Every structure is written in C-alpha cells, then in structure tokens.
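Write out the 3D structure for:
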Amino acid sequence: MISKKIITTSSIETKDFAKKLAKKTPVGTIVALIGDLGSGKTTFAQGFAEGLDIFETVVSPTFKLVSEYDGGKFKLIHVDTYRLDTIEEFLNICGEDIIRTPGAIILIEWADKIIDILPPDTVQINFQRISKIADERELTIKALSE
C-alpha cells in the first residue's frame, strides 16, 4: 500500500471519507488510528461505522476499552487504548483475542500504544489537525509493513 494523504475541512468530510473507506475495507482488517486528543479519531470511527451499516451511536470506548457493533455484513470491534500504559495491559484484557476476532473489522484508537504487536498488514491512519481555528485535518494512510 502506498501512503496517501487526505485533507478534510470538516467533521462531515472526515465522516464521509471514513464511510467510503469502510465500504472498501475487507473483513479481518485492523485499522490503527493514531493522533492527538481532538484530532478526529472518534469522528472517523463514527463515519466508518455508518459505512458498515451500523447506525448505533458510536462513541469513544475510553472507559470500557472495547465496544462491539453488528453491521450489515460483519462486526466492528472498536477499541480505545488511551487509558492503557503498556502493551502488557492490553494483553491482560485478552488483547490478542480482540485483534483476532473472526468476522470483524477491528478499529483501534490510540493504536500507537500497542503498534508493536499489530500485524504488518494493519492499516495505519495518522490524524493531525492543520488549523486550530478551522476544522481542517490531514489523514495519512499507510500499511504498517511499509
């Protein structure tokens, strides 16, 4: 996969991009979302879920770490490692089983905390706010194996 940069200028554009990407994402894919607080990861997750025909309210699972949603064709496992300090903490909550859930796409916010244990075919999306005034974001998409 070649790195690709996308600029979005609103949360609506971020969601729309995520919806389109979700429709092309095969089951079994892990998508690692990396970026600072407020950079658009949860907004992206909401659009991604809609692209999988999930219309439940998707919020950041910071306090429960993992949320599971049933989509039109398969499940979305939404993970948030913000409150974890080490890879070992992720593994202690059966993290290896979570990232191997059959019949699902795994979307991980704050994935930089566990990036070293993710498979090489993981899709990584880095989020960066371009402007603090406007809602502009730069999303850089690449595979970990690059």
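The helical segments are 11-24, 41-51, 87-92, 95-98.
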